[in-house]
Design a protein that fits this description.
The strands form two sheets. The chain has an eight-stranded parallel beta barrel with strand order 3-4-5-6-7-8-9-10, surrounded by seven helices. Strands 1-2 form a two-stranded antiparallel ribbon. Strand 8, helix 13 and strand 9 form a beta-alpha-beta unit. It contains 19 helices and ten strands. By secondary structure, it is α/β, with parallel strands linked by helices. Helix content is 48%, strand content 9%.
């Protein structure tokens, strides 16, 4: 959309403003086509705040996607440079790999160098949604240590990211001076593990001032309206270990995010809510339901959740387990976790493993939620397996190259090429096909 779009006497800046007036935008039409829903259904869901379409007017290369529990579960990949890993080309390779494997969104979490270079390349060339966390860049862009940054510095960085075409921004608006007191009073095992949340806690602690993202929330809304930037209200108090899950700090912040959601929607700004974090499996459903109630059905964007704390090197698995359960109960956007979580910046292989783990989790959630067409490929795979049609199985696989590579690297003997090297002529499918066709079943 242009900065201000006029259709007849109707004027709007954002997808939400358009939807509230019954205007179906080009972006809504694309999302409707991708999701197999009517344009009117998408428009209605956007108007109600149940679906967001993050799509900055300056991100010209984007292929719009919708986020909401009535739609396919989307996945995000966190990438970006750091002081120890500052190769722009390597990060771009990861971006291309992530998008190729099915990531719907890339969050640029760069914390070193000229971050604007990487961000502008993303919004110029990447078809996926682009998200950022402006507080990271505030220190880098203004070249000031944290205690010397002003509220204006933070807001200027938000505007900079919006101008560069970022589709959604994470702003930790829910952590306030009251939260600082709570963190000190209600002793957590692992305190705050959100990087943005910890920076704001430190800034408030050092300056004695209120969180600028909370205090000047209306100014942030002005920027978001101008560029149609979607707000991802950050969970500064998300639990970083099982022991801190669903505590007073997390829930109190969520209540505040629900209040801010209403204010944003009134201004025509699209909103999604970020959530846990580390959490035992049996707590996930309740957290999804509480979020939906407190935040009036705003799309829920979760990191994992990670269902155990003791699997470094395998946290893509612990998080995908939690992500599947969260998605089944209403989370609509899953932030991937890689094997390098808690250990290092992910390399290309880590990115691949993280994306695939979360594609599986998202797909499993879609099947459980009954999303239209979600199980079609699974049913087709069953047909292909019944026929022992290996080419069809490869074509239906989430990662065809990997499936083919594994089978061909351990190929069966030539006299039973229709099976695999695990079962050979003991293959159950082969035996059943022959038995039901009244054929002789040769084993020896």
């Amino acid at each position: 959309m242009d900065s201000l779009v006029t259709k007849g006497a109707i004027m709007f800046f954002t997808q939400l403003q358009a939807a509230k007036q019954g205007v179906i935008t080009d972006e809504m039409k694309i999302v409707a086509r991708k999701e197999g829903l009517s344009e009117e259904q998408i428009c209605s869901l956007v108007a109600a705040g149940k679906v967001v379409i993050p799509c900055n007017k300056n991100h010209k290369s984007i292929s719009p996607e919708g986020i909401g529990k009535a739609l396919r579960t989307k996945i995000n990949a966190n990438l970006g440079t750091s002081k120890d890993c500052k190769d722009y080309e390597a990060e771009l390779d990861k971006v291309q790999t992530a998008v190729k494997l099915g990531a719907d969104s890339i969050m640029d979490l760069s914390t070193h160098g000229d971050t604007r270079i990487f961000r502008r390349v993303l919004t110029e060339k990447c078809t996926a949604m682009i998200g950022t966390v402006p507080i990271y860049d505030s220190v880098i862009h203004h070249q000031k240590d944290l205690a010397f940054l002003t509220a204006k510095d933070f807001l200027d960085t938000v505007r900079l990211h919006a101008e560069d075409g970022v589709d959604f921004i994470t702003v930790h608006c829910g952590i306030t001076r009251q939260t600082v007191h709570q963190i000190k009073t209600h002793k957590r095992k692992l305190n705050i593990v959100s990087r943005g949340g910890s920076l704001l806690f430190a800034w408030m602690h050092m300056t004695g001032q209120e969180n600028p993202f909370y205090e000047y929330f209306d100014d942030i809304l002005d920027i978001c309206v101008e560029y149609d930037v979607t707000l991802s209200l950050g969970d500064a108090c998300r639990p970083g270990c099982l022991a801190d899950a669903t505590d007073v700090c997390q829930i109190e912040e969520l209540v505040r995010l629900g209040e801010l959601t209403k204010r944003a929607r009134q201004r025509g700004v699209q909103v999604m809510i970020e959530g846990p974090g580390h959490m035992a499996l049996n707590e996930i459903q309740a957290n999804m339901e509480v979020q939906e109630r407190l935040c009036d059905g705003a799309p829920f964007y979760v990191l994992g959740p990670l269902v155990t704390d003791i699997a470094p090197g395998y946290d893509h698995i612990t998080a995908a387990i939690g992500g599947a359960v969260a998605g089944m109960h209403g989370a609509s956007f899953l932030c991937y976790v890689t094997p390098a979580e808690h250990l290092a910046l992910p390399n290309l292989q880590d990115v691949e493993e993280g994306i695939m783990a979360f594609k599986i989790a998202a797909h499993a959630a879609d099947i459980a939620r009954g999303i239209r067409g979600a199980r079609d490929k699974d049913d087709a795979m069953a047909d292909a397996r019944k026929k022992l049609d290996w080419e069809a199985q490869y074509a239906l696989a989430m990662n065809p190259d990997r499936a083919r590579r594994i089978r061909e690297s351990r190929a069966p003997e030539k006299d039973h090429e229709d099976t695999c090297s695990m079962c050979g002529k003991f293959c159950a499918v082969r035996s059943m096909n022959k038995a039901l066709n009244d054929e002789f079943i040769d084993i020896i």
